[in-house]
Amino acid sequence: MVTTDEVLPYLNTVDFPATRDDIVREAAKLGAPEGVLKALRGMPPVDYHNKEEVLRSAKTEIAEETPAEKAAKARDRKHQRVAEYLRRP
């Protein structure tokens, strides 16, 4: 998981509102590392109106797992008997 400090520099030149693909394209153009691009590609494909929305949607340290996501993983047999910190998102 990347940090907000790693993602934020690649959002400075984005013209908001922007789609997920626009944001990923701009970050790639600026030379973002693969971890940052992966976090941005993992966002829902909607329009984002500012940097804060992007940081909440991208898998950064402020985008914690929601209770619904935890419950879905608990029901998924693939994740049973595996400690939570060892699970792959």
From TrEMBL:
Cited InterPro entries: DUF2795
Highest taxon of the lineage: Bacteria
Location of the region described as Disordered in the Swiss-Prot/TrEMBL record: 63-89
Pfam annotation, one family: DUF2795
Biased composition (Basic and acidic residues): 63-74
Protein name in the entry: DUF2795 domain-containing protein
Naturally occurring in which organism (per UniProt): Planosporangium mesophilum
